[in-house]
Design goal:
heterodimer, A: mainly alpha, B: mainly alpha, two-stranded antiparallel sheet, 4 strands, 42% helix
Chain lengths: 420, 259
């Protein structure tokens, strides 16, 4: 794994390391050469690891007090909120932690899109990332069902019913998923089991994600290949550790604000009403982080095609390294792509907004246009841009933009003059 | 780039417009100052105690509060009745217990550990007694309604004669804050309905505020701890962030790159 040989200093260390090279691994992680020009958008990888660990730890404690039974789930959540020592804190961290996790993952994904981190030789990192993202959505959906409130129940009903769109076997699959003829206790217990399992699958994939990252090394804002180790890199510890730590603390301040001061703002009020199969809520809406895909689902009039569109919207990302034909990674040197990038960001935000609105009238029209544009961006704009776009000259090394002869010359010079 | 900025501006204008259009459709709830809002928000003890009185004397004949126990009434951060007062309150209720050694069910005076006594034995009994409508359990009611405390506070004062053209069935009442304006609960509060032990004048507004405060506490019994801990946690995080920031600057000063 490491580029250079490492021998532990102590005799025991040597003995141990020959049998299990954990110390070599630790040494690799400490020395790992990282581009020194990474900006704060790169700190979200560490933040996401923190989010995952937080969810697993708080989730373990919640699972000790939660009862996965249709008649007792809602009561057991209230028991956690009232009578378990600091149960309210653990539960609010877990519930808001899910939102924070998605906030961070969206920033992480859009950072990758901007700087072309998905391009060769990092396709595998990207695809593992997409699988992690899919599992995160599954875990979040399953977790939202567990409190057994009205939104839990009806959200589960709506989402599991999507499988009925599959021709011939659809209805059978839905019955199989439910473990009965409606969402009920068997559904709840299996959802709980899967909700407990998925985070550990994610954890395993995160290890692969980081392993795959450590083979080519990090991409960077300039998007060029760099020599490692060289003047362009710094060792991971202490440089990146302290920087990630600083960013994580900033993130935790936002996180803490939600947990302590507006713990329920990201949830839906209806989920404090116990699940009732006889009463349907006025509007069934998923959590905010699933809204763009919900908008895509509803913008297609046909049920099966809607499901296909929604799944394609996620899976199309896996093909991104081959849909984007440009050889230049960073949007900094791609003036046209940069504009389309921001239009895509706006498009996804619009989809999220209309996903929360009733699917009718102007909202539906906007959802349809935005859905069409979403696919247009990946299937038409990106392949064409690679051919048509006139990219800016890229520097030969990270240090070069500072020294001159690059598009960043003006900024570099103004910095120089400030120093003098 | 300029074109792009224009697009973004248009999008913002559009979304801003639609947000305000939505806001215009919403009814404005009545406002009052809640002592429990804000970074240091705490419950008004006296208001909680009065609110409990309104709940027991008025609401509890139909609405249960199944997640509350009598012991909660004397716990920190709540109405903070003394333990003796809470015991006396509990003892004033008849609780069904059993079976005893002979296999019989019996009633006994309530204890601190008992849950609040429910007005009906089950949901069906509650519906039968209320024209088919189930009076919702009030333990987490505030969190289960979109408008929260403002909604409950307004609803209690929102009874009006129906406007011309609106006909109401028997047992249905008009309330301007209710979703769809039709509500199966009759107006419950009238001036002087309860006699507050602390001498506060029991206006409809006062009773609404007190009982809503009580409901906020019942939904979030640890609200005060949460606010206090939150403030400490955030101050701690900010100080740590500043320290880490300067450490980072120091470490990175060995490299010519800015952080």
């Amino acid at each position: 794994m490491s580029d250079h040989e490492y021998t532990p200093k102590s005799k025991f260390g040597k003995w141990f390391n020959d049998r299990l090279p954990l110390l070599t691994l630790a040494n690799h992680l400490t020395d790992y050469p990282t581009p020194k020009n990474l900006n704060y958008w790169w700190t979200f990888g560490g933040i996401l690891t923190f989010c995952l660990i937080t969810q697993i730890v708080t989730g373990l404690v919640l699972a000790m007090h939660y009862i996965a039974h249709a008649d007792m789930a809602f009561d057991s959540v209230e028991h956690i909120m009232r009578d378990v020592n600091y149960g309210w804190l653990i539960r609010y961290i877990h519930a808001n932690g899910a939102s924070m996790f998605f906030l961070a993952v969206y920033i992480h994904i859009f950072r990758s899109l901007f700087y072309g981190s998905y391009k060769a030789p990092r396709e595998i990192i990207w695809i593992i990332g997409i699988i992690i993202y899919l599992l995160m959505m599954a875990a979040a959906f399953l977790g939202y069902v567990l409190p057994w409130g009205q939104m839990s129940f009806w959200g589960a009903t709506v989402i599991t019913n999507l499988f009925s769109a599959i021709p011939l076997v659809g209805e059978g699959i839905v019955t199989w998923l439910w473990g009965g003829y409606s969402v009920d206790n068997p559904t709840l217990t299996r959802f709980f089991t899967l909700h407990y399992l998925i985070p550990f699958l994610i954890l395993g994939l995160v290890v692969l994600h980081i392993w795959a990252l450590h083979v080519p090394g990090n991409n960077n804002p300039v998007g060029i290949d760099i020599k490692k180790p060289s003047k362009d890199t710094v060792p991971f510890h202490p440089y990146i550790v302290i920087k990630d730590g600083f960013a994580l603390l900033m993130f935790m301040i936002v996180f803490a604000f939600f947990v302590f001061y507006t713990p329920n703002i990201l949830g839906h009020a209806d989920n404090y009403i116990e699940a009732n199969p006889l009463v349907t809520p006025a509007h069934i809406v998923p959590e905010w982080y699933l809204l763009p895909f919900y908008a895509i689902l509803r913008s297609v009039p046909d049920k099966l095609l809607g499901v296909v569109a929604m799944l394609s919207a996620i899976l199309i990302l896996a093909a991104l390294p081959w849909l984007d034909t440009s050889k230049i990674r960073s949007a900094v040197f791609r003036p046209l792509y940069r504009q389309f990038y921001w239009i895509l960001v706006a498009d996804v935000l619009i989809l999220g907004y209309v996903g929360a609105m009733p699917a009718e009238g102007l909202y539906l029209l906007v959802a349809r246009v935005a859905t069409a544009y979403y696919f247009l961006h990946f299937l038409v704009v990106l392949p064409l841009l690679g051919w048509k776009e006139k990219t800016l000259p890229i520097p030969l090394s990270i240090t070069e933009p500072i020294l001159g002869g690059s598009p960043n010359l003006a900024t570099a010079k103004s910095k120089e003059s400030l120093k003098n | 780039m300029k074109n792009f900025l224009k697009i973004i501006l248009l999008i913002f204008l559009f979304s801003g417009f639609s947000f305000s259009a939505q806001a215009a459709e919403k009814i404005e709830y009545l406002k009052t100052d809640w002592s429990f809002k804000g970074l240091f928000g705490k419950f008004d003890r006296a208001s909680l105690q009065r609110g409990y009185q309104v709940y027991t004397e008025v609401c509890s004949s139909c609405h249960s509060m199944k997640y509350l126990s009598y012991r909660n009434l004397s716990e920190k951060g709540g109405p903070e009745f003394t333990v003796e007062q809470a015991k006396a309150i509990a003892a004033s209720f008849e609780v069904k217990d059993g079976p005893n050694a002979d296999g019989d069910m019996f009633t006994r005076p309530g204890r601190l550990s008992d849950k609040f006594v429910m007005p009906y034995d089950n949901v069906q009994a509650a519906q039968a007694a209320n024209g088919g409508a189930y009076p919702p359990d009030m333990s987490v009611l505030v969190k289960a309604r979109g408008g929260g405390v403002d909604y409950i506070y307004s609803l209690l004062q929102g009874y009006e004669d129906p406007p011309a053209g609106v006909t109401l069935d028997d047992g249905v009442y008009y309330n301007k804050y209710m979703y769809g304006n039709k509500i199966k609960m009759a107006n419950q509060l009238s001036d002087g309905l309860v006699e507050y032990t602390d001498g506060t004048s029991a206006t409809v507004e006062q009773m609404s505020k007190d009982v809503t405060t009580f409901l906020m506490w019942s939904a979030e019994p640890h609200l005060e701890t949460r606010h206090q801990m939150g403030f400490k946690a955030i101050v701690y995080l900010i100080i740590l962030t500043i320290l880490v920031y300067f450490s980072m600057k120091k470490i990175w000063s060995r490299i010519e790159t800015e952080v």
